[in-house]
Amino acid sequence: MNIAKPNSYRSGPDDRGHFGNFGGRFVAETLMPLILDLEKAYTAAKADPAFQGAMNGYLKNYVGRPSPLYFAERLTEHLGGAKIYLKREELNHTGSHKVNNVLGQIMLARRMGKKRIIAETGAGQHGVATATLCARFGLECVVYMGAVDVERQQPNVIRMEMLGAKVVPVQSGTRTLKDAMNEALRDWVTNVHNTFYCIGTVAGPHPYPTLVRDFQSIIGNETKTQMQEIEGRLPDSLVACIGGGSNAMGLFHPFLDDPSVEIFGVEAAGHGLTQLHAASIAGGRPGVLHGNRTYLLMDADGQIQDAHSISAGLDYPGIGPEHSWLHEVGRVNYLSATDDEALAAFQLLSKLEGIIPALEPAHAIAKVMELAPKRPRDHLMVVNLSGRGDKDVPQVGDILRGKSK
Amino acid sequence: MITRIDTRFAELKKQGRAAFVTYVMAGDPDPATSLEIVKALSKSGSDVIELGIPFTDPMADGPSIQAAGLRALKVGMTLKKTLDLVRDFRKDDNLTPLVLMGYYNPIYIYGVDKFLADAKTSGVDGLIIVDLPPEEDDELCIPALRAGLNFIRLATPTTDDKRLPAVLANTSGFVYYVSIAGITGAAAADANVVGEAVARIKRHTKLPICVGFGIRTPEAARAIAEKADGSVVGTALVDALKNSLDAEGRATAKTVNAVAELTAALAQGVKGAQQAAE
């Protein structure tokens, strides 16, 4: 396919929410008026210095930003190539990048006068961030979570409940993230008058992919400044894991118009791309689900297929529409890492750097292990360490003990 | 363009009564039984039939209709087989309007132009696609109108007077008013509140207005039929079907009758209603 290269990769979406052929607003009529209101409220908030000022205050003093850009010396020595920097999003309050976006959306919800917040969550990181900010601002919080994920992410379920949120285990479909999103949409359709839907990734109907991207772009903006301070120039490459793709979009977006920067997104290849996996770009094609057109895992009849990843946060059959577009225009290279590769990377980073990563960014580390040795020693590679591994410790412990038996 | 839907509503208007609109899922619990059920609907008094296109992720539907879709998918139902079902139904019935209702992805994957051509030749009269608001009219609505199919839009309690003209602009056949902000099979709306909403929409359009979501009994169907141009019943019929299945979810000797009997009772309710003076 011959796709025109844009003058800027950062100008999207158009006024109808399209990134090329992707994105849009594919939702029930009941939700349309609210989505149009949200777009207006977001446009106004973006232009309001008071909103931006208040957000910056919370980002600094509540979230703990800026997050460090850390030179991973031992990992670099071990791999013997590119100089590897970790963007330490796992040090944020609540333990992942998710809090950046949730803070923005909760402040928008307050601006719109909404008192009830709903969210969907896979690994529980988005749910924990939402429960946290609802506690902070005294808002009712309901989190939909696939029953399978409730089982494998118990520590996060307990955290959400301690923060006062109601966690609803979703029993329909595959009982994972996509079903949690269906259930959240059903709740929203039913309670549209008083409820704000806090979406956890750069997906869903316009304007969600844009506003989540904007709230997460602080990751890339800080990285740009920090790299200038440390090395006096731009990084040469960026690597981030992708489920829906919000941590990746946050890191990538400020660099899209810097042609010298190579960009890699890493999808979850699960048991392998010919078996069960969650790699929508590598193993899917464009379709329409959850309010947007994007790459999806589906069968020949357009029925959505089950995704699989060892990481509950990547276990989703779709990807944010802007990623689909960046793939088609060729600006970002999308790779994939299997469960086993992610587990190996999880252990390597823990042992070499004393940092236990979440299973999600372990997929990004897995590709760094492949890419870095092939790069020269003056190559600057930034990997987004989007979350910490506390939530995954019981699951990985079980797997490793099982393997050693 | 005059479709079977237009003709049917014109006839009903002459008779001075509201339409009884039924919904079942194509291929539930299996393609052969499903065809018999659709035939039984028209014979038992359904004026317009909505046939669900099975989809794995029906975001605006409740548990009953989601389960019906999954039952159909489990026995291998597809969009192509849904069109085959319509074609088979048309062999015996060339009058009852038939509307496909579902989500966009299976149609998008089938290919819009091919789908519209095949739907038209199969004997489909109209489409209700839940996740295509007027903002996405270029996708399917405009091509469907060009292909000679009605595109029936949902209007909801959140669709205010300012937005209604956009919702109605490319709508034809009838307007489907969703009586509650919620999913299918949820609690019923108050008939008086529905009456006010129907009156409000009538100020914007001459199209018939059918009301659905939450109507389960002949009494409720009748109360709505007194306020609108049609009552739509789906979940109650799907539940009657489900309750007739065996432990493995397969059709039994009772299945077709269970749906036919409830349809007849509901149709009686609707036909007993006096329509409000316009």
UniProtKB/TrEMBL annotation, chain A:
GO cellular component: cytoplasm
Single annotated GO MF: tryptophan synthase activity
Domain Tryptophan synthase beta chain-like PALP: from-to ranges: 64-387
Alphabetized Pfam families for the sequence: PALP
Domain of life of the organism encoding this protein: Bacteria
Record PROSITE patterns: TRP_SYNTHASE_BETA (PS00168)
Entry-annotated residues carrying N6-(pyridoxal phosphate)lysine: 98
Keywords of the record: Amino-acid biosynthesis, Aromatic amino acid biosynthesis, Lyase, Pyridoxal phosphate, Tryptophan biosynthesis
UniProt-listed Enzyme Commission number(s): 4.2.1.20
Enzyme class: lyase
Needed co-factor(s): pyridoxal 5'-phosphate
Keyword check for Lyase: yes
Catalyzed reaction equations: (1S,2R)-1-C-(indol-3-yl)glycerol 3-phosphate + L-serine = D-glyceraldehyde 3-phosphate + L-tryptophan + H2O
Keyword Lyase: yes
SUPFAM superfamilies given in the database record: Tryptophan synthase beta subunit-like PLP-dependent enzymes
Pathway it works in: Amino-acid biosynthesis; L-tryptophan biosynthesis; L-tryptophan from chorismate: step 5/5
Assembly, per entry: Tetramer of two alpha and two beta chains.
UniProt name for this protein: Tryptophan synthase beta chain
Origin species: Bradyrhizobium daqingense
UniProtKB/TrEMBL annotation, chain B:
GO molecular function ontology, one term from the record: tryptophan synthase activity
Keyword tRNA processing assigned: no
Reaction catalysis annotation: (1S,2R)-1-C-(indol-3-yl)glycerol 3-phosphate + L-serine = D-glyceraldehyde 3-phosphate + L-tryptophan + H2O
GO cellular component, one term: cytosol
Enzyme class: lyase
Pathway per the UniProt entry: Amino-acid biosynthesis; L-tryptophan biosynthesis; L-tryptophan from chorismate: step 5/5
Keywords for the protein's UniProt record, in alphabetical order: Amino-acid biosynthesis, Aromatic amino acid biosynthesis, Lyase, Tryptophan biosynthesis
Domain of life: Bacteria
Enzyme Commission (EC) number: 4.2.1.20
Pfam families: Trp_syntA
Family to which this protein belongs: Belongs to the TrpA family.
Function of the molecule: The alpha subunit is responsible for the aldol cleavage of indoleglycerol phosphate to indole and glyceraldehyde 3-phosphate.
Protein name per UniProt: Tryptophan synthase alpha chain
Organismal lineage: Bacteria, Pseudomonadati, Pseudomonadota, Alphaproteobacteria, Hyphomicrobiales
